[in-house]
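Hey, can you fold this one?
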Amino acid sequence: MGETKEPQTEQAELGFTTVNLPSRGVLYDDKIPDGQVGVRKIMGSEEALLLAQGSQGLERMEITLKKCVRLPNDFKHSDLLMTDRMACMLAMRTITFGPRYQFDYKCRYCGQQQQAEISILEDLDEATPDSLALKMAEKGIEDWTLEEPVHLDLPDAKKHITLRFLRGYDEQKIVRRTKRLLLQSVDPGDPSYLFRFALQIVSIDEEELDSKAGLSKRELFVRKLTATDTAAIRIAVDEVEPGIDLTVYPECRGCGAANSMPMPFTAEFFRPTRL
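Sure. Predicted structure:
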């Protein structure tokens, strides 16, 4: 009689690949040592979930992240930086289907419809604490370290504010708020745009604004800012936030111009037509 073997678990069958988060775990109080997590391939059932029609895209992605991304020390997926969550999603896609990704785009110069192909591993730049520190040193800012909050003096409002990076739980708030406002308003503007700024603000002139009442005050504050000040907030955060830069530069085969754009997320991302 052959030797009886213990049934393999899904985890053992698939295996987890070690992936370095862009933040390297610096902002997680040593709960993710070295900023390393485990990522496995997407199963067919999870692929079907991701491709399902409907308005619950974030919930479907959350379920898939929890299954495919293993975090140490009972760390919650919703506590990951949004930029680290994006890196996990890119890792899931790359491990499952490979780094090659094709997408269609319209050349901004000649208007022709084009198809581009990038390598997720080679063509997207990663900002890590070390690379950000080097960038700061080149600007003459020595001994810079990745930390929160980020301090900023607003040029028009003449206020000193502190800012934080958005987490997964913020993404959930943004989606809920956006859905509600779209149903209530005919305003053509993006209902999430100013709300994101409000979530990032920690304090205004040293007044901590962390409660629900504080959020209302932050929203009112942001609505009264000039576009100069909101740009200052965006630039201040983007300059020091770790993550994967999703900017791509496809060259038009029609006119030869180099386009610069955010990487489009199409059906090809989780349902490639070739491997």
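The chain is about 40% helix and 15% strand. Let me know if you want another pass with a different chain boundary.
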